[in-house]
Amino acid sequence: MYFKIPEEYIFMEKQGWLETQDIVYANDVENKYLWLNDMEWFSLDRIKKYINLAGDEEKFIPFAHTVSYDKWAWYIENNKNISVVLLYNDEDAIQYYAPNFAAGLFRQILNFCSSTEFYDENTLKEINNDDTFCSFDLAKKHLRKWKNSFKELFPEEYIKVIDNIIQHSKLKLIQLDNIKYCAIISPEEEELLVKKYMYSPLINKDIYIQYNRDLIDEIF
Predict the structure, then answer these.
(1) How far apart are alpha carbons 68 and 52 in whole angstroms?
(2) Cα–Cα distance between 195 and 140 in angstroms, integer?
(3) What percent of the chain has pLDDT over 90?
(4) What's the pLDDT band for 2 if we cut at 50, 70, 90?
(5) Residue 51 and residue 41: Cα distance in Å, rounded?
(6) Cα-Cα-Cα-Cα dihedral of 9, 14, 18, 23, to 10°?
(7) Using CA atoms, how far apart are residues 198 and 169, in angstroms rounded to an integer?
(8) What secondary structure does DSSP assign to 159-194, as a single string?
(9) Residue 113 has what pLDDT?
(10) What's the sign of the alpha-carbon dihedral 44, 48, 50, 54?
């Protein structure tokens, strides 16, 4: 099967950002491994092995996994477009996530800002929860690291959005049904940014295409 791995991923591998022996949790910003919300990278060697074994008609190439080990994959829509999808472990449906790899990385940053529970001195007292995941100061360190790391890979408009979040955002209280937490941007703001900067009629839609689940499970 002929498949050209996205240039952004090759660049990340050359920087040493994907070295799995250096995997860290979110509180270690200085580590060389590039932690990115809910994308934990597969090595380039494993990806190449899968490409060599997969059939010519295979449409999905895994490159990372979530914390629950669902697989992020490149979706070969056609010769010109490689999008990002999520292959679920226990479902046949495949979620269309982003129209290209850079957009998928950017969306992970937006999702970090909208879905992670953050705190500062004021909000920690307000929500009375000592188990909150990430301080606002640490979040800004991650955002600065992503901005600097991806400045050669992202469109300028993505970098401007990240910079604007760093410079001007304040924590806001989010209420979703019975869940209350503090975020940097709201889920509604994330949705608007996704629509503005990576619009596709397939975003968040489920697609149903057969793929080699057994081979993916064997290699990844």
Answers:
(1) 26
(2) 24
(3) 65
(4) low
(5) 16
(6) -160
(7) 22
(8) HHHHHHHHHH---EEEEETTEEEEESS-HHHHHHHH
(9) 96
(10) positive
